[in-house]
Design a protein that fits this description.
- There is one protein chain.
- By secondary structure, this protein is mainly alpha-helical.
- It contains three helices and two strands.
- The chain has helices at about 45-50, 55-65, 70-79; strands at about 35-40, 40-45.
- The chain has a two-stranded antiparallel ribbon.
- Strand 1 (about 35-40) and strand 2 (about 40-45) form a beta hairpin.
Length: about 80
């Protein structure tokens, strides 16, 4: 992780988040753990990455993000 970042901190597009120097542990290649969480749940980062180049995907992600409060209410009622 970049020195100026903390775990859980939000970042913006283009911001440096890591520097990969070389392999660690039993890895044969340099690796970076990259994770996106939505409402506390890990999600596939590919749609978010594709949204940068595809306005339609960006709109779909935006709609899903707007729907989070409603989904939280439904979840809380079910608990």
């Amino acid at each position: 992780m970049a020195r100026e970042l903390r775990s859980g901190q939000q970042v913006v597009q283009g911001q440096k988040i890591a520097k990969i120097d070389g392999p660690t542990g039993n890895a044969l290649e340099p690796q970076l753990h990259f994770e996106i969480k939505l409402d506390g749940t890990s999600v596939d980062p590919v749609p978010s990455i594709l949204a940068v180049a595809n306005p339609e995907v960006k709109q779909q992600i935006g709609n899903a993000l707007k729907d989070i409060p409603r989904r939280k209410q439904i979840r809380d009622k079910e608990l």
